[in-house]
Each structure stands twice: as C-alpha cells, then as structure tokens.
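Write out the 3D structure for:
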Amino acid sequence: MKSLTLIAAAMLISVNCIADTLDVCLQGCSFNSVRVAINAAKVGDLIRVAHATYAETLIVNKNIILRGGYSGPPTWQRDVKKYPTIIDAKGTGRVIYV
C-alpha cells in the first residue's frame, strides 16, 4: 500500500510540474481573448491576464488558475491596483460561469 501512495504522490508532482503559463493581452501575446486562453488551457495551467478591459463572457469548466492585474509584456509585473483587469459582459448577463 505504501508504494501505491508514493506512486500517486509522484504522479501529482509531475502533473504540477508540466503546467503551462498562458498570457493574455490586447497586443503582443499568445492570446488576446481570455475565453480563447481558457479553452486552450489544460488542467493546472496559469492564465495571466494583462490590464485592459475584455468584452467577453467566460466559462471556466476545468481546474485552472486565472489571474488578472498584470502589466503585460515584457515584464509581467503583478499589481492589481496599478494594473486593473476588467471582464465586461456588456450587460448580457453573468461575466463568469464556473
């Protein structure tokens, strides 16, 4: 039983080690839409969203980390007061569905 526990723990560690970081900003990033980045993300990935207003509705249907408040490229400094990130559904209903 102990060996099974160690194998399971090793698998959890390896899954966490292969998580990717997906960057979202209006220009110069791999993604310019938070929704598209969420769709492309794998379980455990981090999505960094640069300061801007994004007009979209989001559906989060997997275990990911979604963070706003970044300066954007090239430094990706995080300060939620200095670099506000806004998701605006433009009055169409909820902004984020989880």
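The first strand starts at residue 21 and ends at 24.
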